[in-house]
Here is the input.
Amino acid sequence: MPFNLKSILDIEDATHFKFHAARWNGEYQPLDVFTRDREEWVGWNRWRGKRDDFNRRYIISFIDFYPERHAWLFGGMFEVIARQPVEGPSYEITACEQGSELIGRLKISLELSRGKSFKFEGIIDDVVVTEVLKEPYSGDPFAGFDNVSLDFSMLETIIRNGRLDWRTALQNIKGVYLIVDKSSGKKYVGSAYNDIGIWSRWSAYAATGHGWNVALVELIADKGIAYARENFRMTLLEAWPYRTEDKVIISRETHWKEALLTRGDFGYNRN
Here is the structure.
């Protein structure tokens, strides 16, 4: 017998709720926002467009869990205290305690048409509760050195949350990595050696957007860290044990710079 969403969240009358289907807004995936910054995520529920989409007392929010088809992650319930007839963050809301222990953990399957706001009673019978995670979702698990390829926003989330699986794996290795700018197509090859592991090196990128690389410093100074969030993808090309001599890492970094033509017009490497 499938779980009933109304009973799990202790909802008596669905007609008091609008269902917020949070999806990509043209800039960010709400799942990335949720894992990166909970306050920023709450702000998505304050946002009013041209229409008064959340015109009932309560909002029940689910986040497009884009790694899986038709999957949604529970993002909380909110009471609308006040609303202004203007576009922008004009809903005044307060988070409900109801169901708060399931935020980031409860997953459902639901096929929806386009749009972000739905009458809850109109879709409740189509909802299938699929899973309750042990812990709130905080990004993909570490799946081995050969599979490390992340959008910058996900890297930022992993670093900010201090994900133990990722940190344990990356802090004790040297290596060579690639940054691809999806907007321009340019690439940057970097490395971590000496007493700095990949985790520490990538933490600098998460904090600054540029990791103090000259060309990237100039780019982010001009466009802001939002540019990195929207366009950068980080890939681990080679992972080496911490005992590896630095000259080996530097040699491999040089190889990849030459192979990928990251100096000059095709990339961001200056040396």
Notes: The longest strand covers residues 71-83. The CA atoms of residues 37 and 203 lie 16 Å apart.
